[in-house]
Design brief:
The chain is an alpha/beta fold and 512 residues long. 38% of the residues lie in helices and 24% in strands.
Amino acid sequence: MSETSLPAPDHTATLREALLAADFTADGLLDRLGAAAYAALARSETVPALRATRGASPLDTLVRLFLLQRPVPQEQARAALPLEECVQDGWVRLQDDQVRATVDVRPYGGPDGEDWFIVSDLGCAVGGAGGIGSREEGVVLGVGGASTTLASITVRTPVASALDLGTGSGIQALHAAQHATRVTATDVNPRALEFTRLTLALSGAAPADLRVGSLFEPVGTETFDLIVSNPPFVISPGARLTYRDGGMAGDELCRTLVRQAGDHLNEGGYAQFLANWEHVEGEEWQDRLRSWVPAGCDAWIVQREVQDVTQYAELWLRDGGDHRSDPAVYTERYEAWLDEFEARGTTSVGFGWITLRRSVAAAGGHPSIVVEEWPHAVQQPLGRAVEEHFARQDYLRDQDDAALLAGHFTLAAEVVQEQVGLPGAEDPEHVVLRQHRGMMRATKVDAVAAGFAGVCDGSLPAGRILDAIAQLMSEDPVLLRDRTPQAIRLLVEEGFLEPVPVAGAVREEGLG
């Protein structure tokens, strides 16, 4: 597969017109297949989709040809495609009176309703007809959960320059092309760059500057406003599969990527990665990740999942199709994974998101580094939530307790209060504030914090609100002012309260 020539982009505009005319789009597929068959296709189950496309419409033909990778009659292909041009450019090949696809073309809906197409190796549109299974070293995958996750957490502020490092089939470069004036895409696999070229062209996006090489080598000393990477982060013994295995010991590839990113960020720029990291015996995983953060950068690192070493090995052995190999070979490879983990003292492996932001405060020796575990549901997309997180860190970094008490706040949108306690009890055992957007956090608060959050509408400074609460609860207002700023700080940090700029506001006298 890795030596097969790829289609030429000469007539992508004409092919795109034909795909759109047939409604070969994400919405069109859902309408044609129905929810059940569409969901089954995402699980690599093709029978329902085959049954749903037994007709001879252009859409049926395109689904069978490019998604299910089944041969279709030439007459049907000619009705759905500019067949001669597709054969000439290499998108399909003729076999007797049948037409077969040479690549996987998957409709992909952009964040603002755009109709895009991701081009990848046959059977490698993740969740498509073939799943992943056993693959050659240079295989290029299509859309998967990891790639859509990264796209959803990426900050989408318009920028001058963006870098997609390890572009694969070009999904991140395609997203970046919508809000970056200049997009650079790199990959150690030259075939991946050719797939990226096809993905961008077939999606009607501007071309990217494509460069071959590992990590930051292809860009030298260049800097960017945005860096994104879904790297080959799998921690494995060796580097059999380019798309997933980094080829460095343990989590060294991810660490190197994060450490070097700081030198390639412009002031205020973001670098966002997916990564795996080792949990090593005798070492706190949070400390391990903090040590990765480069000087001059703030960081927000979220661990989404942890697997013990046996679960992790089994997951990626299945990914490579090793479970279908000779039992002795499977056992040997399983042992190699466990030997590697044992030698490194690795007890489990974490997966999550790493976001860096270059800032003046961090460069001045006052970085904000937040490392947390959040395995719970979130509301995608999260790009705006990432921006808001760093804005809150900037605010809190400049606020002492007196400034917090002088500040004005408002309750964030879609925050509700839940009271938990025994039925019939006069007072709840505890109060929970819960978000219904973004990270969808929940936090327990006492009666003072709950009351404070409930009346925050931006009109009064925090100190005066606390004075009123103290009077209602018959508490000493000075003591309440002394002990409450920590709770306010936490509610701001987690996004339950939002600071409100007040024109001409001055610090209250005597606070703190």
